[in-house]
Amino acid sequence: MAEILQNKGSHRxxxxxxxxxxxxxxxxxxxxxxxxxxxxxxxxxxxxxxxTEMIRKRGHESVIEHSAMIVxxxxxxxxxxxxxxxxxxxxxxxxxxxxxxxxxxxxxxPPDKNPDEKLVTLSLTNGNLIEVSFGDWMNLNEQMYRxxxxxxxxxxxxxxxxxxxxxxxIVATANFREWRHIFRLRCALNAHWEIRRVMVNLLRDVKxxxxxxxxDFEIDDETISAKIKTS
Length: 231
Ligand SMILES: Cc1cc2nc3c(=O)[nH]c(=O)nc-3n(C[C@H](O)[C@H](O)[C@H](O)COP(=O)(O)OP(=O)(O)OC[C@H]3O[C@@H](n4cnc5c(N)ncnc54)[C@H](O)[C@@H]3O)c2cc1C
What we know:
By secondary structure, the chain is an alpha+beta fold. It is 36% helix and 23% strand. It is elongated and about 80 Å long.
């Protein structure tokens, strides 16, 4: 039986770029940024926060590119990953359906849908009608995939019957400017529910781990969305 994943999409931050001497992301950004003004002599123990805040508020976003983050996304669908990889300034590595056998595949269903509800009537070639649910359809898919594999089809051929709901894993590396761009687009209310929920949770996490850079994003827990505060 195909395993159904509902509200399971998650992230794991693998790394946040820090300096070789243990500098925090903000300290890296300050060191790089002060090159412009030749003002590294102004660096103090607590100047990085103010400097980065100033840079962000003035919209000098290229300076924020001097630190980066690697994130792994788990239990997300191929639909999610297809949307994510449209962001071009990111390095990706994704679970391959060419090489990985999907005989025990998992699928992502929308958060408000019942996988067992018989919603659709299918007519069989013998004229009989059967009621099927989302879960039934995924099980048929799984049986088809397994059957093709058994018949000698390699994974990269049998994958043609996999649905867009198929669970995937992807690792994404980008600088903070690009992550801000991704959050702006993918946490917005009009973004797809799956990527929006996962990105809002990631944003919540990075707001705690990396000060200042994402402070201007405001999360709305009720709608599970986020946007930049306008003040
Ligand atoms: C709600 C929503 C609905 C969408 N619907 C559709 C849809 O129906 N069909 C569809 O095809 N796509 C759709 N997309 C994807 C969308 O069109 C973009 O491909 C995706 O959001 C990546 O955005 P981007 O190009 O700004 O970002 P990135 O690729 O992350 O680039 C970041 C920024 O870098 C700059 N940049 C990057 N590459 C270049 C370049 N080659 N030349 C100049 N500047 C560059 C741009 O300023 C860009 O904004 C949708 C996206 C969202 C958020």
